[in-house]
Amino acid sequence: MKSIVQILFLILLISLTYSKIEDEIVKSLPGYSYRGRLYSGYLSVSTVKQFHYMFNLAHEDSEHKPLVLWLNGGPGCSSLDGWSQENGPMQMDSEGNFVLNEYSWNRAANMLYIESPGNVGFSYIDSKLDYELEINDDIAAEDNFKALLEFFKKFPSFKGKDFYISGESYAGIYIPMLAYKIINYNKQVESSVKINLKGILVGNGVADWNYDTSNAMIDFAFSHHLTSYEHRQELNKYCKLEYDKTKCDALLDQLDAWLKNINVYDYLQKCELPTTEFGDKNYFDNYYLKCPWAFHNLKQKQQKLKEKLENMELTKNNNNILSENKDEKLKVSPPCVNDKPMTDYFNRQDVKQALHVNMDKSWELCSTDVNQRYVIQEKGSIWTYPTILNSGVRVLIYNGDTDMAVPFNGNQAWIKNLKLEMVKPWTQWRAFDDMNWVAGYYVKYKGLTFCTVKGTGHMVPQWKPKEAFYMFSKFLNDEDF
User: Cα angle at 170 between 168 and 175, to 5 degrees?
Assistant: First the structure.
């Protein structure tokens, strides 16, 4: 039996914890009219790493709704993009105004957003030591896991809830690797502290570098009439069957030229590629820095551009390209995405104060420093899927079918290699029984569903909110599309 002192100490501890959580309630947020319960604060990952989180309770009946973590990709991009432009209670428009999101994911779940890795968004690493700033897929997985454990310490009532991990793009690495760590963690701890992981949802996510991104883009470009038949045949010959680096590079350069002015995130949407004032492609622009793997020999092209400008003795006159203040001029932003409204908003002092974040931290959509430091590991995340599926964790891989950055055909290829038992063959689906619109197509395997969303690109919840919410709700309820 516990002593009176122990009981009093426990009551005091619970009281202090509750008081601290209450301090992280966002009581009001400039320009944001949604009045549901929102928390914002920090999760201590280590003595030097503090990860910023935002937590929207479910719109109604939060006690009986699951918990869903959302992670954006990059690597190095903020999950506040998801919160403010994709599946949050309100969406920020091109003018920086918030409008109500009828299909917010917190209508079906309690939504947690974590800015990861360290130094992304409002998250920060209080150190300048290289070894503490080091970042790769394994470190990101470990840090995300620690952040999640800290969240459950702050919100203990959510630990036993059904838990899902969701996100898009490079989160195709973050999500399954975090799930893998949770599965191993659960094997080592008592049932009372296990994390009740039920499923993962990955949107246009990378997993296998042998198939995703650039490799998939080649076939995607041909199948969508962006390259010629002859060019596709030569690519297959000299880049795969009879590899010839010189010829392969020349063919990829030709592909790059044909894709000029094409939006890499949605080939149907408008995007003018950035150029210098002399007409050269500006390979230092954010368009290219966002996803360097999607552009052949990007570093070499940057070096050639730099050398050309220096040789022409025009460097001093091109501060917009080669500025001494590179941190200001060469920030990483998603291609063809106007991040200025978000950047302006989250850098307002009154917004920072309302969100209880580090007032000295400058927010950017995608961290230049993290992007440059991040070591992308060749193993990807494909190796985690057998363990995830064998553990009974359900998987949804969904793809906007007009995305060229992480095309659906790459995901389709590595899923086929998993050799899963098919439960339901390829068929169309419609959101909320809308008979006037085919939302996409899906195939259901044992433990995994692969789904496309028709006519949209990389950011499915942003561009197709109705379809995304339907798909999300069906998956949470383990219902067929």
Answer: 70
Q: Which two tokens stand for residue 58?
A: 């479910």
Distance CA 460, CA 402 (A): 10
**Cα separations in angstroms, 190 against 75, 161, 195, 246, 258:** 34, 16, 10, 57, 57
> What CA–CA distance (Å, rounded) separates 251 from 257?
10
Helices (H), 70-228: 80-81, 130-133, 137-154, 171-188, 214-223
Q: Is 210 exposed, middle or buried (0-12, 13-18, 19+ CB in 10 A)?
A: middle
Instruction: Please give the DSSP secondary-structure letter assigned to residue 101.
Output: -
For residue 111, give both structure tokens: 């939504």
Between CA 200 and CA 164 the distance in angstroms is 5
pLDDT tens track for 163-202:
999 999 999 999 999 999 999 999 999 998 999 999 999 9
- 3 state DSSP class of 18: helix
**In a 3-state reduction of DSSP, which class is residue 46?**
coil
Report d(CA 390, CA 362) in Å as an integer. 43
CA gap 207, 382 in Å, rounded:
5
pTM: 0.85
Cα–Cα distance measured from residue 75 to residue 431, given in angstroms and rounded to the nearest whole number: 31
CB atoms under 10 Å from CB of 349, counted, come to 8
CA distances from 45 to 20, 145, 353 (A): 17, 9, 22
- The whole-angstrom separation of Cα 283 and Cα 287 is 8
Is the pLDDT at 225 greater than 80, yes or no?
Answer: yes
| Burial of 319 (C-beta count, 10 Å sphere; 0-12/13-18/19+) | exposed
Which residues are known to be catalytic?
169, 403, 458
Q: Which one, of 84, 74, 86, 170, lies nearest residue 464 by Cα?
A: 86
Instruction: Give 296: exposed, middle or buried? Use CB within 10 Å, 0-12, 13-18, 19+.
Output: middle
Yes or no: say if 267 and 261 are a contact pair by the CB < 8 Å rule: no
The answer on pLDDT for 328 being more than 50 is no
Are 383 and 363 in contact, with CB atoms under 8 Å apart?
Answer: no
Nearest CA to 169 out of 362, 411, 400, 406 is that of 406
Q: Considering only CA atoms, which of 60, 159, 165, 71 is closest in space to residue 104? A: 60
Residue 297: what residue type?
N
**What is the per-residue pLDDT for 436?**
85
Cα gap 227→234, rounded to integer Å: 11
Distance CA 73, CA 41 (A): 21
pLDDT of residue 325: 39
Distance, CA of 285 to CA of 294 (rounded, Å)? 14
Query: Which amino acid would we find at residue 203?
Result: G
